[in-house]
Amino acid sequence: MTVNNRYRKTFLLACLLFLANIAFSQDVAFKNANFKEDKQGLKLAKENIKIADELRANGIQKILAMQEADVVFNQAIFNYNKAQILNPNNGELNYKIGSSFLFTNQKERAYSYLLKAKELNADLPADFLFYYGMALQLNGEYSAAIQQFESFKTTAKSKVYALYEVFTKKYIKECQGAHEVLAAEHRIWVDNLPINTKYDEWSPCLSADGELLIFTSNQPNENQSNDFGVYDQDIYYSNLNARKFSEVLPVSELNTENDDVSGGLSYDGQRLLIFKQEDGNADVFESKLNGLNWGVPSRKMGEKLRGGNTDGNETFASFDPPDVKVYYITDGGYSGNKNIYFSGVMNRERNLWGKGQSAGHEVNTKFQEGSVYIHPDGKTMYFSSQGHNTLGGYDIFVSYVDDLGHWGEPINLGYPINTPYDDLFYSATASGRYAYIASNRAGGKGGLDIYRVTYWGADKPMSADREDQLIASIAKPISDKTIAKPIVVEEKSLTVFKGKVIDAITKNPIDAAIEIVLNETGKVFTSFHSNSATGKFLLSLPAGANYGISVAADGYLFHSENFDLPKGDGFNSVNKDIELKNIKVGSNIALRNVFFNTGKWEVKEDSYAELARLVSLLADVPTLKIEISGHTDNVGAESFNELLSQRRADAVVTYLVSRGVDKKRLSAKGYGQSKPVDSNDTAEGRALNRRTEFEIIEN
Questions:
Q1: 8-state DSSP, 108
Q2: Which of 389, 265, 245, 372 is nearest to 314 (CA)?
Q3: Average pLDDT, the chain
Q4: 497-525 residue pLDDT tens
Q5: Does the 3-183 domain belong in CATH 3.40.640.10?
Q6: How many other C-beta atoms are found inside a 10 Å radius of the C-beta of residue 258?
Q7: 8 A C-beta contact, residue 113 and residue 98
Q8: Res 449 pLDDT > 90
């Protein structure tokens, strides 16, 4: 081959490549001339674009009005994609698809469409710069994003810019402050859970011990998908197994043909707040776990919660530890956008709740608040918001309550919990060491995914090389060859008390009423039942109080415990099975919440709640006759201990008689130090030996 022939072939190949590149980057209009062979396809494409344009315009109006619009934008994309199949090289269509993705749970797909639109067409609408800036912000290109927002501000017509002014200023501020938020070092691991699919998994609800996870997903179910191929939202659960949530099962008894969304799980895992549409509005309902199955949801909140706005929607909700208030998200507040409100119970039996009140201006903004969660310590609120100093979209914040009950200035939890995408639904274990969030961040399995947050605490073993699944990816543990400086993770001041209530003889589970009393005031802190099928119970007690815990069931002697949790006490976990004894002659029980001053025998006021339960038992079983016995440790003279225990037993009998109990049904006996139940060699053993008991002597 001659040089000239070789040159001609090279030149021809270069021309073909150049023409192909021009063809690829050419903006192809939806005109008959470009689709002579498929005029019917062109007609259908134009019809779909028209439908999608109307949906997109509706979605934009919702966004400008501070309303959620992901459903509308997904429907617009569904129709745009039909036209995209015919003609993927139209700049305006790519711009519309890309801008629509920005307001869905697939935000990361927006950038490629907007970039392609920019390459195909240099004469796009003015608001393209606004949307392109949003896409750059999602990519973490904050300086470039600011340039796009600034260009939009200066080049768009005043009427157009006015529509987006609030958002433009907000996004510029977020980009300017992003480096400060990202600069703060947080020793945290965030892992995508195995339960996630290409669909949306969101609204994680966690029991206080971290062993039960309930969530919502629109993955395929037994119902038919809608016209856009989307399934309704259903509620699912997963139990912790080998430190992982992997097996997923539907909560079939709660799922219907419509959307059913988990909102908040009680800390004992026995009650679930959900929300669903009723009469055109979203309302919060409560379901109780009856044995192994969830009961039919009952109406939880009424019109009073909406601040007088009967058109409001109540969605994601959270219990507070004393169980007298519920926090929730509503758009029925004074501003009209979604804010955090709370309501107190007025009459639990009649299911009456007080008028909703705002959680305060410190947490609520003129933008949207997306979720709320009150930690079992009762002092910490985690919530998601589009306001405050976010990185973009929804960020998760924490706020602490003061002594007056006011929530303080929110603190951004920072990266990697928060990203420029939407990060919501913080739900934590009682210890605060682990939490679960939902996010539509880049790199997920699809849409919203649930992530596990692990705080890398100071108690991490110092090792030069070890495989640590606690701080590494759940799926792929990594080898860490660096010796990391530990940090102090804030430890929650509370005690988690869990176990089972069982029959002392048969060991069968018992459905028992559990009541927690603040001994100092005698007021009930909270009350609930152990699970009827398993006998399991779980409760969280914030530090700073002395608690009396009573367990009662029909046909059994009640059981009591005392927990003194001083203020500033750290996190503790107590696992204990409670065995209840049948009401029969010879059965006895220790009254752990009957108190006397050292060396004295006058019954203290903080004993009254415990003794009131004994009065109730004697009233319920009129044939019972009991002996009240006093017991001491071995400190001091034996004769004095016997006299002290007798006087204490007599004092209890006197108190019971003053409350209406027939004296003929009561006897008193002081045993001194003669009947220890534990060793007197330790302070703990001596404390157990100092007790008041009663024994059934006739029934």
A1: G
A2: 372
A3: 86
A4: 889 999 887 789 999 999 989 998 888 88
A5: no
A6: 12
A7: yes
A8: yes
Selection from 339-348, 512-521, 666-675 with the highest mean pLDDT = 666-675
Identical fold between 203-456 and 583-699: no
Q: Encode burial over 579-611: b for 16+ CB neighbours within 10 A, e otherwise.
A: bbbebeeebebbbbbbbbeeeebebeebbbbbb
Alpha-carbon distance of 217 to 219, in angstroms, equals 6
pLDDT confidence of 491, banded at 50, 70, 90? low
**What is the spatial distance between Cα 285 and Cα 53, in angstroms, rounded to a whole number?**
37
Cross-strand partners of 262: 274
Q: Rounded to whole angstroms, how far apart are CA atoms 68 and 389?
A: 20
Residues 466, 467, 469, 473, Cα dihedral to 10°: 120
Q: Positive or negative CA dihedral for 233, 234, 237, 243?
A: negative
CATH class of this structure's domain 203-456: mainly beta
* E-only strand ranges, 99-258: 188-192, 201-206, 212-217, 234-239, 249-250
Q: Fold for domain 583-699?
A: 60s Ribosomal Protein L30; Chain: A; (3.30.1330)
- Alpha-helical (H) ranges within 275-354 are none
Burial class (CB in 10 A: 0-12, 13-18, 19+), 296: exposed
CA–CA distance, 646 with 558 (Å, rounded to integer) = 23
Question: Pseudo-torsion of CA 330, 332, 336, 338, nearest 10°?
Answer: 0
> What are the domain boundaries of the chain?
3-183, 203-456, 493-582, 583-699
Q: Does residue 623 surpass a pLDDT of 80?
A: yes
Residue with tokens 């996010």: 439
Two tokens, residue 441: 């961040």
> Could you tell me which of 346, 245, 248 has the C-alpha nearest to residue 305?
346
pLDDT in tens, 50-90: 999 999 999 999 999 888 899 999 999 999 999 999 999 99
Model confidence pLDDT, tens digit, residues 205-240: 998 888 899 999 999 998 999 989 899 999 999 999
Contacts of 8 (CB under 8 A, 6+ apart): none
- Which residues make beta-bridge pairs with 412? 397
Q: Give the single-character DSSP code of 485.
A: P
User: Could you please report the per-residue DSSP string of 395-458?
Assistant: EEEEEEB-TTS-B---EE--TTT--SS-EEEEEE-TTSSEEEEEE--TTSSSSSEEEEEEE--T
pLDDT for the residue numbered 681: 95
Correct CATH for 493-582 of 3.40.50.10800, 2.60.40.1180, 3.90.226.10, 2.60.40.2190: 2.60.40.2190
Phi and psi at 61, nearest 5°, equal -60, -40
Mapping DSSP to helix (H, G, I), strand (E, B) and coil, where does residue 655 land? helix
CB-based contact 514:539 (threshold 8 Å): yes
How far apart, in whole angstroms, are the C-alpha atoms of residue 147 and residue 686?
A: 73
How is the chain split among helix, strand and coil, in percent rounded to 5? 30, 30, 45
Query: Which tens digit of pLDDT belongs to each residue from 161-193?
Result: 999 999 999 999 999 988 887 877 778 999 999
pLDDT the model gives residue 464: 35
Query: pTM for this structure?
Result: 0.80
Report the alpha-carbon distance of residue 462 to residue 533 in Å, rounded: 44
Q: What pLDDT is attached to residue 11?
A: 45
> CA 563, 205, 388 angle in degrees (round to 5)?
100
- Using alpha carbons only, give the angle 509, 515, 519 rounded to the nearest 5 degrees: 140
Supply φ then ψ for residue 158, to 5 degrees.
-55, -40
d(CA 309, CA 640): 69
